[in-house]
What we know:
Structural class: alpha/beta
CATH superfamily: Aldolase class I
Strand order of the largest sheet: 1-2-3-4-5-6-7-8
CATH class: Alpha Beta
Number of domains: 1
CATH topology: TIM Barrel
CATH architecture: Alpha-Beta Barrel
Amino acid sequence: MSDPLPPALAGRIYPLLDLDELDRARPLAARGVRRIQVRHKGEAWGGGFDRLLALSAELRTMGVLLVVNDRADVAAAVGAGGVHLGQGDLPPAAVRRLVGPHVMIALSCAAGEEVERALADGAVDELSVGPVFATPVKPSAPAVGLDLVRRAAGRGKPLTAIGGIHRGNLPMVLEAGADWAAMIRGAREALGA
């Protein structure tokens, strides 16, 4: 295993965990991670709800933003600090009514026109661009490359890059202007956790 990243760089890694991986959140936070997203591709969140509720409170005391993927209702119920939406999820304005004014709303973008709409949408706080590189997690989604990251960066809303990011290509993703690099498989290797 390679050496863990320094805390300043570790703070820019944004791990995505499945609901059954919640035990990984604390070690990642201890390594300097400042935000963690929880996702669950099944419909039933009830089996992990109590654990997610407890984790949300614990991460909040550690200064780590918990983001729930796709589900504004779950984010509101556990007191998460953010919700991440895909293009096919509820519209950001509807989610804002559900979660209130203090919960961060991020929106995935995979094309220039989606970036422009998200930048103009007052209910969207942050953008997520990707997949930047080819990824086995979404094999049918074409990689958007670093050009879309550069196009979305520095335009008034924080930016997360996602898709195929690992320790080796992390520097170029951050140099392209991403505030955070979301990682599913690469976070453990990059952080040594």
